Amino acid sequence: MNKFFNWFFFFTSIRSLGAATILVYVKDDFGWPWGYGICSCAVAIGLAVFLSGTTRYRFKKLVGSPLTQIAAVFVAAWRNRLAADPSMLIDGGEYEKKEKEKQELPHTKQFRTKAALPKQVFRPQPAIKDPNGSNMVNKWRTSTLTDVEEVKLVIRMLPIWATTVMYWTIYIQMCTFSASQATTMKRHICKSFRIPAASLNVFFVCSSLLTVPVYDWIVVPITRKSLNSPQGLTPLQRLGVGLVLSILSMVAAALTEVKRLRVARSHGLTDDPTTTVVPLSVFWLIPQFFFAGSGQTFIYNGQLDFFLKECPPGMTSMSTGLFLSSISLGFFLSSILTIVHKVTGDRRPWLADNLNQGRLYNFYWLLAILGVSNFFLFLVGAKRYLYKEKTLSKEGIESEEGEHDCHV
Q1: So where does this one cross the membrane (predicted)?
Q2: What architecture does CATH give domain 149-395?
Q3: Helix extents (H) in 53-176
């Protein structure tokens, strides 16, 4: 599973590299219609390959919406509002008939269990007819212990999920302000060739591409021996490494911006509205792109691995939802720059239209400080987190993780 996610990310990064190099060249030299035409053909080919494999896919029968289950557990907990003895809680199949059996989960002491009624106080609820004509207990009044424990698993993941949002807020700066920095710097490799502005993210993508084989071929073997872990770094450890690298990217970006502004001042370009290009090589931006790109490899793979493995077997669709929602929230939080612009004022704003007249480095320092605070919150959540596999093994229950692998 770990190897799959690493190389899946590797090939998606190759896609990004092709878009930032080949397609940019085609658009600049042959026109935008050619660029859009190539993209359309690529999507059509991908769709054909996807459809050709549908007969080989293994589909799991749906057991209902995870969001409905979460809502039902909370509603049942509110209706019951009593402390239940764990030994007397309703088990996964005593009172509720399900179309498909779920993996039985042991009762955990984390969070109080009120949704599953104790057996001795269980009273027959209005019967509901299922499609087969059998009676079912109203899930909005009584939840099974397994349903409750599955919701607990999701709740336990939320602090980790929340701390990964900060990385994507930092990531988007590589596509916005770091790219703006690059457009104000010398982009010539030689006299006859200048790196196109749209291709500057190639530094970011290349660092991601380099990190995958280095991690898979060097880091994993070393950590397997040193940490006595068959998978190398655990998902939480990978997330931690990714967060640290994102902080380093903001530190590098701030220091590079300080250097860039010093060069601009020394050449008298800060007050010149007609000249914004600073005589400083764009390769000074490589460290911040490198740290952010390497961090993406650890965050991207770590999130997918963590959410897929830790989500309950009956709620695996939540894994993708949690991953994508962290990205979207990270992008949304980047709107903090509008608040920064209003607070810093118009005289010496941090984020100016002309970067030579702004103080972008302060914005980078702010993100670095927020990243450090977020990292400490992550450490607290990670230290308290108990992997689902360990919880099940304590009770002598075998995890259904192998089944997950078949259905990815």
Answers
A1: 7-26, 32-50, 193-215, 235-255, 322-343, 363-382
A2: Up-down Bundle (1.20)
A3: 66-80, 145-175
